[in-house]
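TICKET: design request
STATUS: open
ATTACHED STRUCTURE:
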């Protein structure tokens, strides 16, 4: 039964996909929920939970191989959108119901200016002429907080930052003042400060325009700040639903409890993060706190005056110098983790790439085992490459799709002459799979047969095949669901304890860095603006930029405290 205040009523939604002539995959299994008028409802769950499929069913933005249940309904103004004519849906999309997608660079057309793309929706749905549409586009860009909107109106998407691109997407979505805005993971790829700006913007627009928002996320910290009601999904079913305070303070379902507990918190640092299976199988939760290993003896690595300049072309004959990293200094000790934090463009990834010599430094020194790595040529550097490894952010892009897992793990050993023969390398590879919690039958499979979290475990195993002393983790858990992230972080800590590994942990997620790091570098615009013990910096940040980063951390989970 639809309530009087309901804007959208999803009833017994069943969605399957035809995978072959004989096989179908069920994505959503009888889901029902309502989106009230002038309210923000959050759909929460991990990848594969069915939350995005449920949301896209509302506007029928689904693949051609979709099969909708005969009893499924999405009721809007007395009409079932699942059986509405395509012409009606075209009039509805962008006007009454709009969508902001996760990745703006995939959603914006690269060959049109952002002004033209905002104006297009106004011409189609509002019947404005070119001049009126352009004037309104300028107003919308101002409304969503894009700096210098007159100049940006003629910019192409690639000329804007990620946060600005997402603001353009929001401007397009709200152009016709829709009754419902569907925000599908709109901040996942953004820095914590930009993420804060986007969620604040959506909240302000929701209040000012009295529209409803369906906010899709796997981050409960964000959800607690922006939404009034929460729907928790897993494996295509609703596990729990209710108002945000009830869900956070008294979650009934073990899966909801796990999602809340998996996220690292700023006020506690347990030996292990809880994972989904701990709650589902009623295992005791570890409460003992982790103590950082002491920084004893000489540093494993000492970095002085590290600098990276890029020569940028300016005009036909001129050029300018862009300093990506400006005179960074730090040390790294065995068994400890150095966290490097900052927004996109702060230089943190460049520091990691110079440490591994995947990028050559312009100046400075990297002292490791009595050698300055910057002075070594390619042949001289080869023995050190196996000792300093890197785990990249995207496990989908960092593994060769044409190699089996056996080839992925054994090839580096072969190149660096680790292991006496192929049988020995195979045995080592199988041992590594066991270390990272993957079954032996993974050995002959290909990367596409694994989930994102499993691929990241394979990437970690590949690093370990080199028997490294230092591993650079470059945003290596930011693309993962919170429970998978917790599993990978626990694995990294276990390996650090077992092998005495030193980590350089690069991330824009300050809660994760707080959990992992013993020491911290805070970077802004290529400079190290603050450094010190993690506990000291989080308890009493000295620099205004660090204070700004910490204030931007989603505090939604504090409701549960």
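STATUS: resolved
RESOLUTION: sequence designed for all positions
ATTACHED SEQUENCE:
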């Amino acid at each position: 039964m639809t309530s009087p205040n309901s804007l959208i009523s999803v009833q017994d939604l069943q969605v399957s996909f035809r995978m072959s002539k004989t096989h179908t995959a069920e994505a959503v299994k009888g889901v029902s929920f309502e989106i009230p008028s002038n309210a923000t409802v959050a759909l929460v769950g991990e990848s594969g939970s069915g939350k995005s499929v449920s949301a896209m069913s509302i506007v029928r933005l689904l693949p051609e191989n979709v099969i909708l249940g005969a009893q499924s309904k999405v009721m809007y103004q007395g009409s079932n959108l699942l059986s509405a004519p395509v012409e009606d849906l075209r009039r509805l999309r962008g006007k009454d119901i709009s969508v902001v997608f996760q990745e703006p660079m995939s959603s914006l057309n690269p060959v049109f200016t952002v002004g033209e793309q905002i104006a297009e929706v106004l011409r189609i749905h509002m019947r404005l002429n070119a001049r009126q549409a352009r004037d309104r586009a300028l107003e919308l860009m101002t409304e969503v907080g894009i700096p210098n909107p007159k100049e940006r109106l003629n910019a192409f998407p690639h000329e804007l930052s990620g946060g600005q691109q997402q603001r353009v997407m929001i401007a397009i979505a709200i152009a016709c003042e829709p009754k419902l805005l569907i925000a599908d993971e709109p901040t996942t790829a953004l820095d914590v400060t930009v993420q804060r700006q986007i969620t604040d913007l959506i909240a302000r627009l929701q209040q000012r325009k009295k529209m409803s928002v369906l906010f899709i996320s796997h981050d409960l910290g964000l959800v607690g700040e922006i939404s009034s009601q929460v729907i928790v999904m897993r494996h295509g079913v609703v596990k729990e639903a209710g108002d945000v305070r009830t869900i956070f303070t008294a979650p009934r379902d073990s899966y909801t409890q796990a999602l809340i507990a998996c996220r690292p918190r700023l006020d506690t640092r347990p030996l292990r993060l809880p994972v989904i299976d701990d709650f589902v199988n009623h295992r005791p939760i570890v409460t003992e706190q982790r103590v950082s290993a002491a920084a004893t003896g000489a540093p494993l690595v000492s970095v002085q005056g590290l600098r990276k300049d890029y020569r940028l072309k300016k005009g036909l004959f001129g050029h300018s110098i862009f300093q990506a990293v400006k005179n960074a200094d730090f040390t790294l000790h065995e068994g400890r983790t150095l966290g490097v934090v900052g927004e996109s463009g702060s230089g943190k990834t460049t520091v990691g790439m110079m440490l591994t010599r995947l990028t050559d430094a312009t100046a400075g020194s990297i002292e490791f085992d009595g050698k300055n790595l910057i002075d070594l040529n390619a042949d001289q550097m080869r023995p050190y490459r196996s000792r300093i490894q890197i785990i990249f952010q995207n496990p989908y892009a960092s593994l060769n799709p044409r190699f089996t897992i056996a080839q992925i793990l054994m090839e580096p050993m072969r190149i660096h002459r680790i292991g006496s023969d192929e049988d020995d390398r195979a045995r080592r590879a199988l041992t590594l799979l066991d270390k990272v919690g993957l079954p032996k039958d993974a050995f002959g499979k290909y990367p596409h047969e694994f989930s994102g979290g499993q691929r990241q475990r394979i990437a970690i195993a590949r690093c370990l095949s080199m028997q490294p002393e230092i591993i650079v983790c470059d945003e290596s858990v930011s693309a993962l669901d919170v429970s998978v992230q917790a599993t990978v972080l626990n694995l990294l800590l276990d390996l650090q304890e077992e092998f005495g590994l030193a980590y350089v942990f690069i991330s824009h997620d300050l809660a994760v860095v707080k959990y992992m790091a013993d020491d911290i570098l805070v970077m802004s615009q290529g400079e190290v603006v603050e450094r010190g013990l993690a506990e000291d910096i989080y308890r009493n940040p000295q620099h205004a930029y660090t204070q700004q980063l910490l204030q931007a951390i989603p505090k939604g989970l504090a409701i549960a405290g």
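CLOSING REMARK: Residues 301-560 form a domain with the Rossmann fold fold (CATH 3.40.50.300). Residues 98 and 173 are 5 Å apart (CA to CA).
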